[in-house]
């Protein structure tokens, strides 16, 4: 079987990383899987560029210009909106023409237009569209947050500010997506978490569609270094591509450290916070109340491995996550995850069994207290040798069962082979 995976990049962004892993996983079980991208950064011979940089840039700029005009020349939301108004003629590309099945992933920013999706559907091949965020079910946004307009027909988009209205660009794009009509029934939609699947079935665009939940594949490391269960000092890890991305809710993490210092003074003396990832505004890290080290960007499998192996707990304060990869990686490397329940976290963490799920609060003070309670619980587990060994075993078993490359690849093949 020949499968082509269409994604903007082969390594930049979460969707790119997991799409590349899926390609490798499919190849690992004997499928001739290849990727079609507009940004190639790996040296894989199975990844092919869709077009020249000049053609790609022309399509990208055409879409951005239309968005820039529609949002009132607002730079702050320019890359929070995608319309799929422009794209490349991928339906004519040899990889697509020769494929037995097409897997769409993250196709925005001028790679594939809605018209292009329609033309691929008209080729008559099985098409799977893996949703890594909410874009397929909204007008123009990837993360609806507190907005519920996608439950109807979009419009009055919060991202458009004064340019928002009943017939704004979010409503117009919603109508274009809706006009795909019966053709969308030919798409097999995949949500990477149960939470995302629930959002899709609530939406006006996808509520009639069949949604299959298949998680992303993650690298499961072998030969883990044994954890030192006798040490007194403990490391809390917090990481993201960009730490001060509003979705990552960094203020809640900072507040958590203040609560730990105030309410858990004996515990605080044993804790160190280690952060990794880009920071657009370094001042965002100010106010952390426990010993702290920032590693910057961590690149390469071995470097990532060392960071996780040296840590004991991983905390995620995000106000929204589709399927947070850091929680999976934490479990795989033996770090107890502590997270809010805003998204696909429950697909990864079984509360008080393979980690801690805190109830989310938009109140920063309350959020900080709830995360601190999770940290306190994790430390209590780590301090008991029997409990620590038990949770390490459960986390490892859970990751292997849910997120191994082979399990995920076979799930996609089963979906493609169903009528």
Question: Can you tell me about this structure?
Answer:
The radius of gyration is 22 Å and the shape is globular. It has 13 helices and 13 strands. The protein has two domains: 229 residues, Glycogen Phosphorylase B (Rossmann fold); 169 residues, 3-Layer(aba) Sandwich (Rossmann fold). It is of the alpha/beta class and 419 residues long. The strands form two sheets. It has a seven-stranded parallel sheet. A six-stranded parallel sheet has the order 10-9-8-11-12-13, sandwiched between helices. The longest helix is centred in the last third of the chain and has 19 residues.
Notable traits:
single chain; 419 residues; alpha/beta; Rossmann fold; 2 domains; seven-stranded parallel sheet; six-stranded parallel sheet; 15% strand
Mean pLDDT comes to: 93
Low-confidence runs: none
* Major beta-sheet overview: 7 strands, parallel
Order of neighbouring strands in the sheet with most strands: 3-2-1-4-5-6-7
**3D shape:** globular
**Number of helices, counting only DSSP H or I runs of 4 residues or more:** 13
Distance between the termini: 16 Å
Level of helix content?
25-40%
Query: What is the β-strand count?
Result: 13
Order of helices and strands: EHEEHHEHEHEHEEHHEEHEHEEHHH
CATH 4th-level superfamily of the largest domain: Glycogen Phosphorylase B
Kindly provide the name of the CATH class of the largest domain: Alpha Beta
**Tally of individual domains:** 2
> Radius of gyration in whole Å, from Cα?
22 Å
The CATH topology name of the largest domain reads Rossmann fold
Can you name the CATH architecture of the largest domain?
3-Layer(aba) Sandwich
Q: What would you call the structural class?
A: alpha/beta
Percent of residues in β-strands: 15-25%
